[in-house]
Amino acid sequence: MTFSEILPFMNEGFAVSRDEYKESLIIFKQVPASIDDVTNMKSLPQRVKNLFLSLKVGIDYEDQYIVYDFDTGVATYCVFDGEDINAKDWKVLPENYNPYAQNS
């Protein structure tokens, strides 16, 4: 599949990957969310929390793509490059995807 063919699947909540990636890597679109009170957010440094709280502002998460590695448990922001956008080896992963099973 091409990048343009895979985008609607990510918009529908599917995890995707590329044949070129190791089996433990998946990409998905994060569900948009609004966080009005950042007090309990563990991902923000305390000084940033203090700033947000003093200004009484929240955070709106929109249009974020995440790459997750099952081997390490690390999730990070995914930025698609030209190779990804032009690739034709994209695939939609089933909900029961198991990166540790052969031929998943």
Topology (SSEs and partners):
Elements lengths: L2 H9 L4 E3 L6 E5 L3 E3 L10 H10 L3 E3 L3 E5 L4 E4 L4 H5 L3 E3 L12
Quickly describe the structure.
The protein starts with a helix and ends in a 12-residue tail after the last strand.
Task: Please provide a written account of the structure.
- The chain has 104 residues and is of the alpha+beta class.
- Helix content is 23%, strand content 25%.
- It is built from three helices and seven strands; from the N terminus they run αβββαβββαβ.
- The strands form three sheets. It has a three-stranded antiparallel sheet, with no helix packed on it.
- The longest helix is centred in the middle third of the chain and has 10 residues, at 46-55.
SSE-based structural type? alpha+beta
Sheet with the most strands? 3 strands, antiparallel
Strand order of the biggest β-sheet: 2-5-6
Low-confidence stretches: none
Overall tally of structural domains: 1
List key phrases describing it.
single chain; 104 residues; alpha+beta; three-stranded antiparallel sheet; two-stranded antiparallel sheet; 3 helices; elongated
